Amino acid sequence: MKKIIDFDGLFDKKLSEYMEQNHGKYTEKQWESIIPKLYKNFGDTYLKSAGNTPKGFYAEMSDEELVETLKAHVREGVPVSDFLCNELESRGCPDGLLDLMRSGDEELVTLAVNLAGDSEKAFDVYFDLLTGDWNEDVKDTVVERLKNGADTVKERAIRLYNDHVEGEYMLEILSACKQKDDRVFEILLNAFRTSPDELPMHASYLAVYGDERALPVLLDVIDRDETNFLEYRELKYAIEALGGEYTRIRDFSEDPYYLEIMEQSGMQGIPEEKK
Q1: Which residues pair with 52 in a beta bridge?
Q2: Across the strands, what pairs with 47?
Q3: What does the pLDDT profile of the chain (275 residues) look like in tens digits?
Q4: Cβ-count burial of 175 within 10 angstroms (0-12 exposed, 13-18 middle, 19+ buried)?
Q5: Which of its termini does the chain have fewer beta carbons within 10 Å around, N or C?
Q6: What are phi and psi of 26, to 5 degrees?
Q7: Distance CA 156, CA 141 (A)
Q8: What pTM does this model have?
């Protein structure tokens, strides 16, 4: 394995020199636009200490060397540059990334999930992480990956939902399916009907799924007097997303959720729905 090089540290040093040389030439906002371009150009800059450009340094490595280099960066506390990450991402989820996801090291697992992206090779391990003893951040990241392959993982998500395993996450994944399936629709609709405490979230899943057959149920619930302001907003959004409309004028001026939102936002007056 090649030596570990802190390319970000080298860039920061060059950047400091450049900014000092150009002091007062650019505004802070202009620097925000310039720095990413300088970093990109740095990736193609030959560095004697590396014997290559930063991009070329990693492009010469095998998949196994890239993964070992990533592990070494984490182990030694050396920042992981975008150049290393981009090269790993371009390899289409090397098997070594799957091994990192099974390593039990939270930092390596998080890095590996982000670098593996939406590769179907990683889906089985993603489900292992999702149903395992991991923190919410890891699981949220995994769910986003699985949502992008929802139609591919649909059968497994249905099975886990029916087995009462991470039900909310399975609903979120199923809501992202593009190919319509009556089983998925019934699961999402039943979750909406039977979980009043999660009504806004479950309404959003129906909106994302995009089956207009849910409209009668949504319209019935939004019209109930006990529907609070937070629920009303999400229900109205879901109805409109599905091509429907709800026009009844509602008064939320005494609704505690509405009053809290108005207080936090510093807004005054009556809600849009009360005219």
Answers
A1: 47
A2: 52
A3: 788 999 999 999 999 999 999 988 999 999 999 999 999 999 999 999 999 999 999 999 999 999 999 999 999 999 999 999 999 999 999 999 999 999 999 999 999 999 999 999 999 999 999 999 999 999 999 999 999 999 999 999 999 999 999 999 999 999 999 999 999 999 999 999 999 999 999 999 999 999 999 999 999 999 999 999 999 999 999 999 999 999 999 999 888 988 988 888 765 554 444 43
A4: buried
A5: C
A6: -125, 150
A7: 18
A8: 0.85
